[in-house]
Amino acid sequence: MEQAAAPYVEPRYATALRAGLEVVGWIGLPIALWSHSILLAIGVDVLLIGVPAVLQTPGDKPGTVIAVPG
Fold first, then answer.
1. How far apart (Å, rounded) are the C-alpha atoms in residues 13 and 33?
2. How far apart are CA 25 and CA 27, in angstroms?
3. CA-to-CA distance for 67 and 70, rounded, in angstroms?
4. Along the 70 residues of the chain, how does pLDDT read in single tens digits?
5. What is the DSSP string of 22-51?
6. What pLDDT score was predicted for residue 52?
7. How far is Cα 48 from Cα 21, in angstroms, rounded to an integer?
8. Rounded-to-integer distance, Cα 16 and Cα 20, Å
């Protein structure tokens, strides 16, 4: 009999690191762009938050909006 492969479980430190880097990007990039253009700073934040929310790898979250292979 063949054994079923165990699903991959991401380590907690990797999840925390990814979440921390996302927060730094959401806060840091708009601050860096604020002096150039307020609309650009707001737009980049919408882009940084919106793209991962819409384009998801199947299995990451239930209810994938647009499935992206990966």
1. 30
2. 5
3. 9
4. 667 777 777 789 988 998 899 899 999 999 999 999 999 999 999 999 888 888 877 666 666 677 777 6
5. HHHHHHHHHHHHTTT-HHHHHHHHHHHHHH
6. 81
7. 12
8. 6
Which helix (H) or strand (E) segment is 14 a member of? helix 12-33
pLDDT at site 64: 64
Residues 6+ positions from 26 with CB-CB distance below 8 Å = 45, 48, 49
**Tokens coding 36:** 């150039």
What is residue 23's predicted lDDT score, i.e. its pLDDT? 92
* pTM score: 0.64
State the Cα–Cα distance between residues 31 and 17, nearest whole angstrom.
21
